[in-house]
Write a structure and sequence with these properties.
The strands form five sheets. Strands 7-6-15-16-17-14-18 form a seven-stranded mixed β-sheet. It is globular, with a radius of gyration of 23 Å. It has 474 residues and is of the alpha/beta class. The protein contains 16 helices and 19 strands. Among the domains are: 5-44 and 64-79 and 210-293 and 401-469, FAD/NAD(P)-binding domain; 99-196, no CATH class. Helix 5 runs antiparallel to helix 6 (148-162), helix 5 (138-146) crosses helix 7 and helix 11 (284-292) packs across helix 13. It has helices spanning 14-23, 68-76, 102-108, 111-130, 138-146, 148-162, 171-177, 183-192, 214-225, 275-278, 284-292, 363-374, 404-418, 425-428, 435-450, 456-465, and strands at 5-10, 29-35, 46-49, 52-55, 80-84, 87-91, 94-97, 204-208, 229-232, 235-242, 245-252, 258-262, 265-268, 295-305, 315-317, 327-330, 344-352, 385-398, 421-423. The protein binds flavin-adenine dinucleotide.
């Protein structure tokens, strides 16, 4: 019998794969990764269709975390392209650089709008000087930073599309998602003529030559070559307990046979609330918390086009409510190797929840709706479309409804009770992360286990001091 510690990793997205890859470098561990899909990669996967390589929404690799880019460059080798970023915002028939530049706001907005934006910002700034109350919700947070006018025109409709009603959302979402310190910094920047702050907007980023999915593929390949066991296309049935600690897992393999495997540690990166289905003895209080915690879903609609690139930037945000989608992106602008010569692929992405009528539209209905909304943008003609279809994904965006924090903390309390489970990643830790942050979390979970730090306080401290400080950089 082996003396190795057996670590079970639930989920083969970037978080789970990074943890497995890091542990595979230490011969004291036997690592098993369990994934419900037949392929690895989760949200970072790519797929092939008629000679195109397509991602599930636009992905850039950019990081502010020390050491992460160096490590990723080692893993990716020559297949990692370094690109200059371009992103736009489309408003009132015009394209703007994003984040917004004051100079563009003054020249491209009608004069009365520019005055209105600056005046409403001034009103907020003065109010904030007198009133130091913490923002109650997403809306308060943004209005305090940018003023009501910019909020109404850009942030509110964008939040409605991506996250739901901004008045019902916790301000923490805005802290994580909107890294810009506000209009004050934009004005200061204009006066000092400094280039855009790298902690607010990435000037450049990395992207794998053949699609973002190369990152998880490489992580799998390297981990597998060092002995990590991958169980793909399996249904995890139960997490077994012994004396209050996790002691094993039962799962249905791809042939439908039920199997069990004992384990010493579990790195949990699948949707947080799914734990209620895996531990039959979970308390009623925890089950209620799991019912509250939810994610929003995403539809990505693809137009494969016989055309040169059609967008003015790699991706463009469309806040106005006349567009059901929030963003268009074009992968050929990331890497020309992702489409046959003379072709391009346009990705339309939007977020839904279960009750949203768009979620239940079939592809034909979606296409008609989108073509009507895309028509005024004059990006392509119907006869240039060689194929169009959607892909739909459940559990993409953590839903930061007011009250989520208390429920998430309750579920995380299992870490302190059990001492051998680690919630990690975008879905597992319910943390609105990008892939670099997931990579970091996966490494940290592995290092924590490696160092034998059974004190969950220190994992809790890591969360507080490191993971909760992650910010999304546009
Ligand atoms: C539209 C969009 C754009 C994005 N853009 C960027 C970007 O530009 N840059 C960037 O760095 N990041 C970006 N991200 C974020 C990035 O995709 C995620 O942070 C990252 O992929 C999350 O990795 P994860 O491993 O935590 O979760 P996931 O990738 O979701 O992995 C979880 C895995 O668990 C599996 N699973 C679920 N349930 C079970 C179960 N019961 N049993 C077994 N397996 C299960 C899933 O199939 C999945 O493979 C974007 C995300 C979206 C949605």
């Amino acid at each position: 019998m082996s003396n190795k510690k057996r670590v079970v990793v639930l989920g083969a997205g970037v978080t789970g794969l990074s943890a497995a890859y890091r542990l595979s470098q230490n011969s004291d561990f036997e690592v098993h990764v369990f994934e419900k899909e037949k392929e690895v990669g989760g949200l970072c996967r790519s797929f092939r269709e008629d000679g195109f390589i397509l991602d599930y929404g636009p992905h850039k690799f950019y990081t502010l975390i020390d050491g992460v880019l160096d490590e990723m460059c080692k893993i990716m080798g020559d297949d990692f392209l370094s690109l200059e970023k371009s992103q736009n915002l489309f408003l009132k028939g015009k394209y703007f650089d994003f984040p917004l530049k004051i100079s563009e706001m003054l020249t491209k907005f009608p004069p009365h709008k520019s005055v209105e934006i600056l005046a409403s910002f001034g009103v907020s700034a003065v109010k904030n000087l007198k009133d130091k109350t913490e923002p109650k919700n997403y809306e308060d947070f943004i209005v305090q930073k940018f003023g009501k006018s910019l909020y109404n025109q850009i942030f509110e409709p964008m939040a409605n599309k991506m996250f739901g009603n901004p008045r019902q959302l916790d301000p923490q979402l805005a802290r994580v998602r909107i890294s810009s310190p506000g209009l004050v910094s934009v004005i200061k920047q204009l006066l000092s003529r400094k280039s855009v702050d790298k902690t607010i907007s990435a000037p450049n980023f990395h992207y794998p030559k053949y699609g973002f999915g190369m990152i998880p593929e490489k992580l799998k390949e390297k981990s597998e070559s060092r002995g990590v066991n991958f169980h793909l296309g399996v249904k995890v049935k139960e997490l077994k307990l012994n004396n209050g600690m996790l002691s094993g897992i039962s799962f249905e393999d791809s042939s439908g046979a039920l199997q069990t495997l004992s384990c010493d540690e579990v790195i949990y990166t699948i949707p947080m609330q799914a734990i209620a289905d895996l531990i039959p003895s979970l308390s009623t209080e925890l089950r209620q918390a799991c019912r509250f915690v939810s994610f929003r879903h995403t539809i990505v609609y693809y137009y494969l086009l016989k055309s040169q690139p059609v967008l003015p930037a790699m991706w463009v945000f469309y806040p106005e409510s006349r567009f059901r989608f929030g963003r268009l992106s074009e992968m050929t602008k990331f890497s020309p190797y992702t489409a046959p010569l003379g072709h391009t692929a346009l990705m339309v992405d939007f977020t839904c929840d279960d009750l949203d009528p768009t979620w239940s539209m079939d592809d034909g209905e979606l296409n008609e709706m989108l073509l009507a909304q895309l028509k005024p943008l004059k990006l392509f003609n119907r006869d240039q479309v060689i194929k169009n279809f959607s892909r739909r994904f459940r559990n993409f965006y953590p839903s930061y409804k007011i009250g989520y924090q208390e429920r998430v903390d309750k579920i995380r309390s299992l870490e302190r009770e059990m001492h051998n489970i680690y919630f990690a990643g975008r879905l597992g830790d319910f943390n609105y992360n990008n892939s670099d942050q997931c990579f970091d979390m996966g490494y940290k979970a592995a290092e924590h286990i490696e160092q034998g730090k059974q004190s969950v306080e220190s994992w809790g401290e890591l969360r507080q001091n490191r993971f909760e400080k992650y910010r999304i950089v546009d």
